[in-house]
């Protein structure tokens, strides 16, 4: 019983760490930017500075809401799934689905409040740094005095709570639908086809991405930085669409890599291929943040890099003073997205791999050496990283090529490939390190004990 | 040792003064206390004893899944020496098969793939015909492409038996193989194990707490408090049950006296 409690607590702590981190970072960034509203409300702020400050706070606040909502939904769903046994136990002693849901939302609310409050000092400092930077780069007047007040607190805490509770609500709904039995057998009799809803959503997102790309290359051709309005979104929508098609993409990449993996990887390669095949849905879940990270980071950073080396366009409607502010926003939003995507990649993969401890134990009892298990996990990681990087790169194309066309008349941007290589390396390293690190830890436990769990 | 036909040349399993102590701090648990036993090839032995008497520990030490604190273990004449998990795994691959209470089939693999896995992991060529014929022997010739989750408990355990047989190991170890099964499935599993011994000369060591299961074996070894406290040849369910009751008395008596 004590063992059960400890185990559940450990799983729980793990699940909450990622949720907490998402909330904490989200709260910090949103609050720091919301402090720009407090600053803008101060005495003697000129119109131009006020406008810049307000735009920054609103854009980052909006993105923060969406990103934290996604992150909390993802991390809470995972932690709830790991507690399926505990939740089933609660239900079997008479807890209604409503009560279970309330417990999940309640726990999340506690974590969110703690995260938001702990973020206050960091956000206050961050806001100050942000204003300094805006002043140094002449985006706002240098005479402004920094203020951190009601707007920062209410928006920062409000956005964090709203996103967290929204995410917990979704997770709770999924949890109460999931029966313990299903949770345990999900691996083997998982649904192999995508639902209609998901397919339609994926197509809509892909179409939106393509549409933004086309508009960028046609309507905004020669209009300078104005083209960012549509170009920036293109890779976001397209990457989300691709990520939703995850199960199909996983099957595609597995079909291509199955031959080489089996040939080069021996028994480990064979097992890796079978595992990925039988677990397309799970793998697709881990694939999603990798595609989003690669696609959005590549798209946005190259868009900015093209912009920085392109000549200013005469017909742009955006005043030169705002160009720097746009760059700042691009970098902040991409930075935020990247950090959250990284947390999601690590969290998803570590949780999924740790969850397989029993399976690794079973495999070791049949005759797998630890290096064979590690090689298998490594090769599964390679499939995942390859799929994520490949489709993330495809996702970025609808931003990069149209923007390059609109700004320079050339399809291929004439900028460094270094950024792309860096993004790809980060994505691949995160994926492999998370899988292998968690697997290493999972097989430290003696096989007999691991299967008894 | 009493009750064993020592005239057989090959000892499939030999334990010499094997002890196992868990933990080293305040309360070390001596799970095994100087167990010595020899099992001839082609025999079916049941290990019985009260819960916590060290049956699973004995099995794990004998099978090379755990290292004894003291003593030596020989499987098919080769001594199990300490080493990395990788070294132990390679030692086990050729000599040992396992059957567990919880089947422990890999959920992502089909029945056929599960049975062939030990061969694959050992880098051997997989003979599908041989795998199929073993599956037919355990009565699952028509289920080769099913996943474990699509089978009943009894069927899963029969897959596990096929998987244990496929490498033709020196010893098959089974820990409560019928513990999670209904009476009928249990009987078919026990019949298969006994059949493997009689027909192919397999050596089987089975931990159980069920006197009926033990009666399928050629002989029974009784454990109490980590020590061997007796054997019984040609066991019947009644005789085993009788001994177990006395074992209970004996143990509680010992605890009272020894305290
Ligand atoms: N990994 C372990 N760590 C500590 N104590 C253990 C461990 N495994 C078994 N024991 C202890 O050793 C004794 C024998 O256990 P076990 O071999 O599982 O008995 P049985 O299988 O006969 O029920 C018990 O007292 C048990 O609590
Ligand atoms: Mg036991």
TrEMBL record, chain A:
The keyword Transcription is assigned to this record: no
Main location: membrane
UniProt keyword annotation of Membrane present: yes
Membrane disposition: Multi-pass membrane protein
Keywords: Cell membrane, Membrane, Transmembrane, Transmembrane helix
Domain of life of the organism encoding this protein: Bacteria
Annotated localization: Cell membrane
Segments passing through the bilayer: 12-33, 53-73, 109-131, 151-172, 200-220, 236-261, 282-303, 331-355, 382-405, 417-439
Annotated ranges, domain ABC3 transporter permease C-terminal: 64-178, 332-446
Annotated GO CC locations: plasma membrane
A GO term for molecular function: transmembrane transporter activity
Signal peptide (residue range): none
InterPro entries the record matches: ABC3_permease_C, Macrolide_Exporter_MacB
PANTHER family registered for this protein in UniProt: ABC TRANSPORTER PERMEASE YTRF, MEMBRANE COMPONENT OF TRANSPORTER-RELATED
Family from the record: Belongs to the ABC-4 integral membrane protein family.
Name this protein carries in UniProt: ABC transporter permease
The organism's taxonomic lineage, starting at the top: Bacteria, Bacillati, Actinomycetota, Actinomycetes, Jiangellales
Automatic annotation (TrEMBL), chain B:
InterPro entries: AAA+_ATPase, ABC_transporter-like_ATP-bd, ABC_transporter-like_CS, ABC_transpr_LolD-like, MacB-like_ATP-bd, P-loop_NTPase
Residue span, ABC transporter domain: 13-250
GO molecular function: ATP binding; ATP hydrolysis activity; transmembrane transporter activity
Signal peptide: none
Keywords carried by this UniProt record: ATP-binding, Nucleotide-binding, Transport
Stored PROSITE patterns: ABC_TRANSPORTER_1 (PS00211), ABC_TRANSPORTER_2 (PS50893)
GO CC terms of this entry: membrane protein complex; plasma membrane
PANTHER family xref list: ABC TRANSPORTER RELATED, IMPORT ATP-BINDING PROTEIN
Protein name according to UniProt: ABC transporter ATP-binding protein
